[in-house]
Amino acid sequence: MSDAVPGIHHVTFVAGDPERNLDFYTEVLGLRLVKKTVNFDDPSTYHLYYGDEVGSPGTILTFFPFGEGRSGRSGRGQATATRLAVPEGSLAYWREHLADRGVDHEPLDGRDGLAVYDPDGQRLELVAGSNDGIEPWDGGSVPAEHAIRGVESVTLHPTDPEATEEVLEELGYERREDDGDRIRFEAPGDRSTGIEVRTDDAPAGTGGPGTVHHVAFRTADDESQDDWRERLTTMGQRVTPRKDRQYFRSIYFREPGGILFEIATDGPGFDRDEPVDALGEELKLPDWLEDDRERIERSLAPLEDGPAEVR
Questions:
Q1: Is the bond into 107 cis (omega within 30 degrees of 0)?
Q2: Any idea where the VOC domain is (predicted)?
Q3: Edge-to-edge order in the sheet of strand 8-15
Q4: Is residue 228 pLDDT above 80, yes or no?
Q5: pLDDT at 131 over 90
Q6: Residue 83 CA to chain centroid, in angstroms?
Q7: pLDDT tier at 309, thresholds 50, 70, 90
Q8: Contacts for 164 with CB less than 8 Å, ≥ 6 apart
Q9: Which residue ranges form the domains of the chain, and what is each CATH number?
Q10: 20, 22, 272, 287 — which has fewest CB within 10 A?
Q11: Sign, Cα dihedral of 43, 44, 47, 48
């Protein structure tokens, strides 16, 4: 088997209102809605996927918009920020673009970049960089020359940083930078390879809208996923059986620092049930939920096309 995962597959978040979420990630950030489906464990809730034109691994942000409710609080035991790569020289465009849209943003400490908060308070960071081999979605609200290239890194704030670091090293991540309160790890892939581990103290996080649900790492196929499950189980992690997510297959485990990790296969991809030029246009359900389509559609709030006010 491979000695390392090649990087991040996707990041999944908890959100509130689905229409507001759709408006922000398509109209403000310029990502493509590549799949509109439901949470397979709670079909009364959408599962929305955004990314590049085809939803390439490493570009994907996914959301469970559970509706209005008590917001979560980012803190220890969670992933606390997701960095998105934009082209070199594009930050000036993004400052103006976000200001024009009335979106709060601020400079990053210690690095040229912008911290942005989505409508649920989820922290995103735009940094200059590149994801090799990723062509941005050029049919959206942001010109292709400035468009987001995918996930650059994810920041973890575990309750037990040393134990989390051990898991990352087992996954093949290598320590690259250490400034005392933040340690940078890199995987050997060509995109979305960074993980930063915070080691400072802070209050514990609580789940809810505005927080990360889990971080997913890439693996090539079922065979390599099986190898990872065996390897992690031998290490003492409690890993789930394989779950079919239609567009990839997944195993999950909660690492010792409290953060839910997933290892997801690169395929079969989001075009398995609708053509690339129509991705995200229709509500897609797995075969085992099709008989309940009418009831499921009644339970979901309608998602309107086109921009709306970002609140």
A1: no
A2: 7-129, 150-266
A3: 32-39, 42-51, 60-65, 8-15, 211-219, 260-265, 249-254, 243-244
A4: yes
A5: no
A6: 10
A7: very low
A8: 156, 158, 197, 255, 256, 257, 259
A9: 8-299 (3.10.180.10)
A10: 287
A11: positive
| Biggest distance spanned by C-alpha atoms of the chain | 54
Which of 278, 296, 301, 299 lies closest to 32 in space, CA to CA?
Answer: 278
Q: What is the DSSP string of 215-250?
A: EEEEESSHHHHHHHHHHHHHTT---PPPEE-SSSEE
User: What residue type is 11 in one-letter code?
Assistant: V
Place of tokens 């991040």: 8
The pair of structure tokens assigned to 67 is 């509706």
| pLDDT of 21 strictly over 50 | yes
3 backbone dihedrals φ, ψ, rounded to 5°: -85, 0
Identity of residue 201: D
d(CA 56, CA 18): 22
Q: What is the DSSP string of 249-288?
A: EEEEEE-TTS-EEEEEES-S-GGGSS-GGGTTSSB---GG
* Residues 34, 52: Cα–Cα separation, whole Å: 8
d(Cα 72, Cα 63) in Å, to the nearest integer?
Answer: 14
The residue with tokens 């005392």 is 180
